Amino acid sequence: MRCASPDTEDPRLSMAALQRSPRFALATIAVLGSALAVSAAGAYAGGPKKTAADSAARARTLIWSDEFNGPDGSMPDPAKWAVVTNGSGYGNRELEYYTDRPSNIHEEDGKLVISARRESFNGPDGLVRGYTSARIESQGRFQLKYGRIEARIKIPPGQGLWPAFWMLGSDYDRIGWPACGEIDIMENVGFEPSRIHGSLHGPGYSGGHPLSGFYTLPNQGRFSEGFHVFAIEWEPETVRFYVDDILYETQTADNVPAGARWAFDHPFFLVLNVAVGGYWPGDPDASTPFPATMLVDYVRVYRMGEERAEKSRP
Predict the structure, then answer these.
(1) What does each C-alpha distance from 237 to 7, 124, 196, 241, 280 come to in angstroms?
(2) I need a surface site. Which of 39, 110, 128, 192 has the fewest CB within 10 A?
(3) Average pLDDT score over the chain
(4) Which strands, in side-by-side order, build the sheet including 82-83?
(5) Could you tell me the end-to-end alpha-carbon distance of the chain, in angstroms, rounded to an integer?
(6) Torsion angle, CA of 263/269/270/276, rounded to 10 degrees?
(7) Distance of CA 142 to CAs 84, 115, 229, 313, Å?
(8) How far is the C-alpha of 88 from the C-alpha of 176, rounded, in Å?
(9) CA angle, corner 62, sides to 58 and 63, nearest 5?
(10) Which of 251, 204, 182 is nearest to 13 (CA)?
(11) What pLDDT sits at residue 144?
């Protein structure tokens, strides 16, 4: 979920414009080959097999979580999350206005509910948008450096929708994007109902050219049909991506382009949102169901082995 400002993002580098496969151009031939192997295995062999190196076999300690068990209709815990209100489009040509209204975000039945709606909304800054949605961030409340980060999520279906679970470098406000680094644990665009993407954005490999891979559900399954656990395991110079404990992608510092730097060995904060429209997913159409709701059962962060996670509170 790219977070560039309108002044820093070039539409010519957009994901849709670059026709990534399909409409998703992966950063390197090696990454593409790896991702295609995973996709083929998922389609024809029931998915990649777990190994002893998988997360289920790793010693880990829970250090932070949100189970979203507040009263029905309540807002996310303000000690853990800030609810963003913004209609800027984030340089991606997104069409939504993020609000803090219960109709867009609340807790219910032990889950976080984020609902994108087709409606005219006039924001306090005077911006008028034809859609509303919600976005929460742990910035200023929780940050970490290394560990296992996972969430159990059911995403919404529909052309033009862009649900995501991701992370931004905690120095974003100071040095900007993409220098701060971005880790996309899960992104989906509505025209790919069976596929999610995991990506790293940094200086020299951002926008339409991240380090990236994808996982495709077997038997034409759709991610919107049920909950799945999306996770990364993050260590110095390495990030591994998982769906339901299946390892489908590994990125290391050796994968960055020549002359670029690895931007992921410092603290990051968490983000959850459902965007509407944008260069990559395209606009909603008459087939897109609204309200479009993403359900989050939990978010959990673990320390793995001897790695130390870092937390800070204002």
Answers:
(1) 30, 42, 23, 14, 28
(2) 128
(3) 85
(4) 82-83, 135-137, 268-276, 161-169, 182-187, 195-201, 211-216
(5) 26
(6) -70
(7) 16, 24, 21, 6
(8) 16
(9) 130
(10) 204
(11) 98
pLDDT digits 0-9 by tens, 140-168:
999 999 999 999 999 999 999 999 999 99
Collapse the DSSP code of 227 into the 3-class scheme (helix H, G, I; strand E, B; otherwise coil) and give the result: coil
Q: Which of 51, 50, 59 is nearest to 302 (CA)?
A: 59
User: Do 270 and 149 touch, CB atoms closer than 8 A?
Assistant: yes
Q: Which residues contact 26 (CB under 8 A, 6 or more apart)?
A: 20, 32, 35, 212, 213
Sign for the pseudo-dihedral over CA of 173, 256, 32, 238: negative
Query: Could you give the residue ranges of the DSSP H alpha helices within 12-140?
Result: 20-23, 29-44
107 close to 113: Cβ distance less than 8 angstroms: yes
Q: DSSP states of 242-263 as a string?
A: EETTEEEEEEEGGGSPTT----
Question: Which pLDDT score is estimated for 306?
Answer: 54
Residues 233 and 304: their CA atoms lie apart, in Å, by 8
Active site residues: 182, 187
Q: What is 11-304's CATH topology?
A: Jelly Rolls (2.60.120)
Residue 11 backbone phi and psi in degrees, to 5: -55, -25
pLDDT score at 2: 59
Structure tokens at 172: 């974003």
Residue with tokens 């593409």: 32
- Yes or no: say if 177 and 162 are a contact pair by the CB < 8 Å rule: no
Number of Cβ atoms within 10 Å of the Cβ of 53: 11
pLDDT tens profile 119-146 = 999 999 999 999 999 999 999 999 999 9
> pLDDT tier at 59 (50, 70, 90 boundaries)?
confident
Residue 264 reports pLDDT greater than 50: yes
Number of Cβ within a 10 Å radius of residue 94: 26
Q: What amino acid occupies position 164?
A: A
